[in-house]
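Minutes, project huddle
Topic: does the predicted pose make sense with beta-D-galactopyranose bound?
PN asked that the exact inputs be recorded in the minutes so nobody has to dig through chat later. Recorded below.
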Amino acid sequence: MAVVLIVWQAMCISAWAATASHTQFKPGEIWTDTSGTPINAHGGGILYHDKVYYWYGEIKTGKTWMPESNRSWDGTRVETTGISCYSSQDLYNWKYEGNVLPAVQDDPNHELHKSKVLERPKVLYNRATKQFVMWMHVDSQDYALAHAGVATSDSPSGPFRYVGSFRPDGAMSRDMTVFMDDDGKTYLFHASENNATMHISLLTDDYLKPSGRFVRVFEGRSMEAPAVFKHGGRYYLMASGCTGWAPNEARSAVAESIWGPWKELGNPCLGPEAEVTFRGQSTYILPVVDKPGTFIMMADRWNQNDLPDSRYLWLPVIFTDKGFEVRWQITWRLNN
Ligand code: GAL
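Predicted holo structure (tokens), as shared on screen:
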């Protein structure tokens, strides 16, 4: 009887743990979704649509291994599975909506074949076409292709249809993000010229292609992992250096116009391990919609020997006279 009781109690506790809601952010801890499964959305970005936040990210699952072609720069990989989507209204609790752009299993020549690279998805909503447009980094296993890819959907929770990939404005494209300005104009920020120089490229009004207008910024600075946001009429950027999965010192920059000039402001991180971005790498800076002036820095703490166990670092952005700061917190909450 005692054993039955203990088993029953254990079942109750695990059922409670699976459904218990999160009430704070715990950077670097395992973060479970509403079913109790660890959230699997790396290199991600957020779309806010009809009062719901959607988090899209790389699904990292299975064995981590080292392709011969990537050995010189420690570029471990997992087979590509697709892009996940989660939804939330409070930013603490996320419901899994599914694999919204699954990898292709049987055609090794397809750009989305499981052997290829599919990273850093970011989704926009186009009011005119009523389409959800996903931009992402599409690459060969050795990262030589250096393409940006596009997929579209009629619904934020997918499924997304793959449109294709290309070198934007004819230029190499690896780490990337997209930024929509207040006027709806949208820009692709991408590490180009073999990662040495970033390009900012205005997209066409349907968000499906580069418009042809672009600028080269941070020339020769080898910046990756761009995250862009706007506050008080100024444009801000956070990015990393270029050291693969290994963390490095973050960069920040500010501009009065999206076209520049962009002024570098140095490392915005403060606290333990700030010199290596708390062992993370930026992916997105999220404006909290009902709290003007509140932004969350989202970063990935990659585990290059076990990529599926990579964690998330969400930390508050604090504005200063000079620019912005990101301070380490063990746990934190948004102010009510
Ligand atoms: C990083 C990049 C990641 C991923 C990784 C592969 O520099 O930011 O998105 O491409 O390299 O090693």
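Observations noted during the meeting:
- The chain has a mean pLDDT of 95.
- The longest strand covers residues 117-126.
No decisions taken; revisit at the next huddle.
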